[in-house]
Fold this protein.
Amino acid sequence: MHGPASAGWLLVALCAAMGAYCLLRMRSSLDAQRAGAGGEAVMGFGMALMAVPAAVLSPPLALWWVYVAVFGAAGAYEVVRARRSAHHLHHLVGALAMVYMALAMASGGGHHGAAGVPLLTGALLVYYAAYVLRSGLRLMPAASAGTVAAGGGAVVAHGWGDRAELAGACRLSMGIAMFAMLLTM
């Protein structure tokens, strides 16, 4: 990733923490929290590895092709799941963005000199800016004091992996990180 090393390390820490939290969500007793948590964990850890500053680690060219294969497979998986919910469509966009960045890195010989297609980079930046704003607005407190499920009953959180607001904050953080990574293209 281009840019100052301190920003790269902050992205590494943020994305690794989000990946770890998503692994914790995979153990949740709530189906809604487990759904998609594995894909989000892979995305978080993949972004963390991609954000390591180039001055510290210049990965071999073959690693970028591994990224293309892993996130290409994740994208193919999300194509099937995107029919079920808009959130899986977001996972598809994220996987394709990772493929795009990995291809740019592979064609640029690694971190240095990697540049993408300006129009595609711009479209992804607009998408992630809108996603971040929408996600941030959804985290704002509602008028009611309690959280109510769609069925009318109160949502009970049993553990850290069951907290819907933490999952929303995790998604928001990963959206911000993806936006920051795309800015360096």
